[in-house]
Amino acid sequence: MPALPPNRSPIVISGPSGVGKGTLYNLLFERNPETFTLSVSHTTRGPRPGEENGTHYHFVTKEGFASLKNNGGFVESAQFGDNFYGTSKATIEEQTRKGKVVVLDIEMEGVKQIKASGFDARYVFIAPPSFEELEKRLRGRGTDKEESILKRLAQAKLELEFSKTPGVHDKIIVNTDLEKAYEELVGFVYAEPQ
Ligand SMILES: Nc1ncnc2c1ncn2[C@@H]1O[C@H](COP(=O)(O)OP(=O)(O)OP(=O)(O)O)[C@@H](O)[C@H]1O
User: Fold this and answer.
1) CB 3.0–4.6 Å: which of 75, 93, 148, 165 could bond 144 by disulfide?
2) Binding site membership of 14 for ligand 1 (Cβ less than 6 Å)
């Protein structure tokens, strides 16, 4: 595998919760540590124990966040509960300048925003082999309460529907077998620019 893919534009990975996005891109990082990096988001929520500013998130005040947003500094942003989250253009540009291919893990509304912003990226959707298998993975992961699992499954229906919109994603990978899905992702990421 060459050290750097010929196309270095950021990769936006989306797909329903529990489909295996994190599992897949973590393999990409583990196996190619010099090449890829996960985009670091901004958030107004406070750091949890062990979280470092600049590594897990850029922790900012609500005022700081609002000012960045008003200046068009985010390619996408969202509010969850009382907290704001966003992906800053400057952060991605800085990580790209350091020679890394930036991977972004973005949910559906964020993908719509990024696409609307005209941001130059490659869009990959990770799909489950079936809805039943998605539910099995979410339950098998053992990290979510029943209420959260039901919410994620309801949202998954919308995401799967959206993924059928022509022209939104450059690549759709069905994550049936993890190694095969990984190979497909690598094949796409290292492909020559069209
Ligand atoms: N191909 C696969 N076959 C079977 N299980 C898988 C496969 N890929 C991932 N999994 C498992 O599915 C579960 C969900 O994976 P993961 O946490 O990576 O999903 P995610 O899409 O990143 O979810 P979220 O958006 O909620 O962070 C994990 O327990 C993971 O080990």
Assistant:
1) 148
2) no
pLDDT band at 118 (very low <50, low <70, confident <90, very high): confident
CB of 141 sitting under 6 A from ligand 1: yes
Instruction: State the distance from the centre of ligand 1 to the C-alpha of 178, rounded, in angstroms.
Output: 9
Which CATH number does 11-189 carry? 3.40.50.300
The residue to mutate among 13, 23, 109, 135, having the most atoms of ligand 1 within 8 angstroms of its beta carbon, is 23
Pocket test for ligand 1, best of 19, 24, 134, 138 (most atoms within 8 A of CB): 19
Tell me the average pLDDT across 20-46. Answer: 96
pLDDT of residue 2: 55
In the chain, where the domains are located? 11-189
Confidence of residue 11 (pLDDT cuts 50, 70, 90): very high
Nearest-angstrom CA–CA distance, 163 and 169? 7
pTM (2 d.p.): 0.93
pLDDT at 3: 67
